[in-house]
């Protein structure tokens, strides 16, 4: 069973949110990568960056070893990423360091061999963490980051990394016949005896992968960390957006005031006479600047300037102010 762990202190949580908001500002809608989260995590916890690698454990510092797994999920318009809380999700490729010698053996035998290899992989990483610890300790964790394509909401939690005991699981082969352009496939499905839940799907074609099913904590769990870094509602009628300092400076130079009510009125007024212009201003790599506006103004901002992020929308807004 899963054991959720505290990943951040309150101070680290706030630092992670600012770093995440700053990263989203710079990304301009591109895909969120493993290296992005690794950098944010290290920055929030004051851990020296080692550089992200898909070969070794992601975080290794003074006895802490964290293997990060990321999953992008679809959120329907008007929905929330929190809808996945309390559900089980499947990660499509947790590890590829496993071999399946034959798909013709008994499924229980195949499961035990896969778990044996998985155990060796975890133990080798634990040994690496211990060797790099001053007191020979190893706090081994799996960190799950769930995000959605608009880069608005993120969920993160950690659980104790464990070695599955084959005595608590059973397995079955699942074979799909070829049809149309689809090739035949044979996967090993592994279930938890106590609950009957599928816990692993092991692919055997086009590269062996252990695909785990993991449980997302309830939204009220203290070990679940929720980040909203675009259009965050602070009160029923106030929204915070994050933009780059360069964009904030340029906006101030254009309008002369960044007070919430003043900027909100300007956005609503500009939206009523908006015409599309392609020019965009630059931005720098500093920490994000938070800007408070009314909920009505934010709705106009999103609807009128259809950019890939709040940063992009404000830059388009600035061009509107600059255009005669």
Detailed description of the structure:
It is a single chain. This protein has two domains: 4-226, no CATH class; 230-322, no CATH class. The model is unreliable at 276-284 (pLDDT under 50). The chain has seven helices and 14 strands. Helix 1 (10-27) runs antiparallel to helix 2, helix 4 packs parallel to helix 7 (310-322) and helix 5 runs parallel beside helix 6 (295-304). By secondary structure, it is an alpha+beta fold.
Helix content: 25-40%
The topology string of helices and strands comes to EHHEEEHEEEEEEEEEHHEHH
Number of strands: 14
Structural class: alpha+beta
* Rounded radius of gyration (Å): 24 Å
- Beta percentage is 25-35%
Helical stretch count? 7
Q: How many domains, in number, for the residues? A: 2
> Termini, distance in Å?
63 Å
Largest sheet: 6 strands, mixed
Q: Which residues form runs of ≥5 with pLDDT under 50?
A: 276-284
Mean pLDDT figure: 89
Instruction: Tell the overall outline.
Output: elongated
């Amino acid at each position: 069973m899963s054991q959720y762990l505290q990943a951040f202190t309150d101070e680290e949580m706030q630092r992670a949110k600012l770093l995440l908001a700053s990263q989203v500002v710079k990304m301009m809608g591109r895909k969120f990568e493993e290296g992005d989260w690794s950098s944010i995590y290290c920055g929030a916890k004051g851990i020296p960056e080692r550089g992200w690698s898909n070969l070794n454990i992601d975080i290794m510092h003074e006895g802490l070893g964290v293997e990060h797994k990321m999953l992008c999920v679809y959120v329907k318009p008007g929905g929330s990423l929190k809808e996945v809380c309390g559900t089980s999700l499947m990660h499509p490729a947790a590890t590829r360091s496993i071999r399946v010698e034959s798909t013709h053996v008994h499924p229980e035998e195949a499961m035990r061999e896969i778990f044996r290899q998985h155990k060796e992989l975890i133990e080798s990483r634990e040994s690496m963490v211990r060797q790099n610890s001053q007191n020979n300790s190893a706090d081994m964790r799996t960190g799950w980051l769930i995000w959605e394509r608009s880069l608005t909401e993120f969920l993160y939690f950690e659980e104790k990394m464990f070695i599955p005991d084959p005595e608590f699981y059973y397995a079955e082969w699942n074979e799909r016949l070829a049809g149309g352009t689809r090739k035949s496939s044979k996967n090993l499905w592994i279930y938890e005896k106590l609950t009957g839940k599928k816990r692993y799907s092991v692919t055997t074609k086009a590269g062996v992968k252990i695909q785990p099913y993991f449980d997302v904590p309830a939204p009220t769990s203290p070990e679940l960390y929720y980040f909203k870094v675009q259009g965050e509602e602070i009160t029923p009628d106030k929204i915070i957006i994050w933009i780059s300092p360069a964009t904030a400076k340029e906006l101030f130079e254009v309008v002369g005031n960044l007070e919430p009510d003043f900027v909100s009125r300007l956005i609503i007024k500009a939206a009523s006479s908006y015409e599309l212009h392609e020019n965009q201003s630059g931005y720098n790599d500093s920490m994000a600047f938070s800007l408070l506006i009314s909920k009505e103004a934010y709705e106009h901002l999103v609807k009128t300037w259809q950019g890939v992020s709040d940063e992009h929308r404000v830059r388009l807004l600035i061009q509107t102010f600059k255009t005669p």
